[in-house]
Specification:
The protein is α+β, with helices and mostly antiparallel strands. 37% of the residues lie in helices and 19% in strands. The chain is built from 20 helices and 20 strands. It has a six-stranded mixed β-sheet. Strands 14-15-16-18-17 form a five-stranded mixed β-sheet. Strands 8-9-13-11 form a four-stranded antiparallel β-sheet, with no helix packed on it.
Length: 620
Amino acid sequence: MKNLLFLIPFMLLSCTQNIKTADDNQDETSTGSDPHSFANPKENVVTHLDLTLAVDFTKQQLNGLAVWTIKHVTKSDEIIFDTQGLTIEKVTLDTDTAEVFFALGDQVKILGQALSIPIKPETKKVNIYYSTSKNAKALQWLNAQQTAGKKQPFLLTQSEAILARSWIPTQDSPGIRFTYNATVTVPKDLMALMSAENPTNKNAEGKYHFEQKNAIPSYLMALAVGDITFKAIDKRTGVYAEPEMLDKVAYEFADMGKMVNAAEKIYGDYRWGRYDVLVLPPSFPFGGMENPMLTFATPTVIAGDRSLVSLVAHELAHSWSGNLVTNATWNDFWLNEGFTVYFERRIIETLYGKEEAKMQEVLGYHSLMENIKELGNKNPDTRLKVDFTGRDPDDGVSDIAYEKGYFFLKTIENAVGREKFDAFLKDYFNRHAFKSIDNDTFLDELNVLLIKGDDKVKKQIDSYAWVYQPGLPKEFIAPLSPVFSKIDTLVQNLLTTKNTLGLSKVLKSTNEKLYFINKLPDNLDPELMVSLDTEFNFTNSTNAEVQCAWYVMAIKTKYAVAYPAMRKFLVTVGRRKFLMPLYKEMIKTPEGKKLAQDIYKTARPNYHSVAYNSLDGLLK
């Protein structure tokens, strides 16, 4: 998953033949029932949005007009939208300026409120005038001190999974797609960007126009406003960042163009035009968010040595798995993330070699096993096909969807061969382009188009065990890396000899360091912690992945020397991937919980709602 003064209606642009409209692409899946949406797409469904926004940093508010073009599926006289915390000022239909009745339903925990609007058979457009709440969950308003430049404020959105409804009245289901145009007015010294065709320079007016020609679901709606600059990587890729970060970001992501080329060779054309990355301030709660044409990325991947660029490969892969072919509901989340991890590692293998991809696979496996251990290997949430009805789908953001999904697809590849599997997936992306798909449809196609009645292959794959059973299938064999096997020996020698000298010359890559730290025993001798820190300077590392792993180890061994650096890290960085393991480890002891609560008191204002909603209950 990811993150304006007066309203001026703007003219609708006619669609060209190349535009993938929602009307062209809605299918039975995309208009199905979604337990996380009030919308009634089987009766009336949106196909296009014309959005006008005014960004008010003083009030921390968006003032908006959402003009929705709708399609009548039946003769129903009502259309229903999802909202959360929005103030609906008025509603009109088509070009009529007369206000029409609307009703907001009861507040439902997690889901917000249904917005019901009566319509006529001839109604083509619904115009909703609204403003956002200061506490809108998708919006994070940063003051100047929370940015790299320390001079200008910053606004970012995070709409995945069901937070788009907190800044746009929308039919907030991944199975409902629409095209959009937008006009956004911001303070004149700031730039606005969206998940659409974007500017590369600020303009004098502070008014920006956007167009997204391909139909997308609402969770891919994105907006960022700040002191932002641009630098091209090649003809169709580039990076956005605050001026102070731009050169570092451009250096780190120099291989973006190569990644797009590599991806296209595997699964076909990149269909979104440009691929750019915006590096946000450190409070962004995820590593990256695959907003179409403009990935939002955390600055924690800027390590200075291009060692964490697999994140870019992951978000780029979403341009096929997720953005192009989307999970129909959040109960099918693995179809987005499992496919994307698989594709990401194929890109990494192409550019950086099989061993690099294998190391990431092994690290992913260990992370998955930790996740299963934490949840319990019989917990239904460790199935790929989950049921988050009545729960926040954001709870599905775990290694189950990502890594178990990956290993299921890897199992299919091993059973049928890479060549056949690639042909199947390339056809899958083409057939379902700009549509949504559910779990059962994928499994049906797997059986009909790939397994084709071969009982031996069917047994090898064992889809039922992977998708509908908790934990991992009994027949699954854990992956191994020759590089990591050598590190296992190094760790054993270290525990025997207590000698750390020269290790930093042996363990050079991020993957090697992460594996090494994670293989250290929880009761490691405190003197060895000191020696390792002297050898590697882990406490003051500039690599966020290494920092997190080391700080977890420091908590386990009560290596207090690292605590000041850990505190600074937790106060500065908002990426949930790093926050959760550190806070969870601290609260295991009374003194640790006290430390965690003390740090959290200072850090919480810097976190996005996605992060603090996960942490509030943990740190009571």
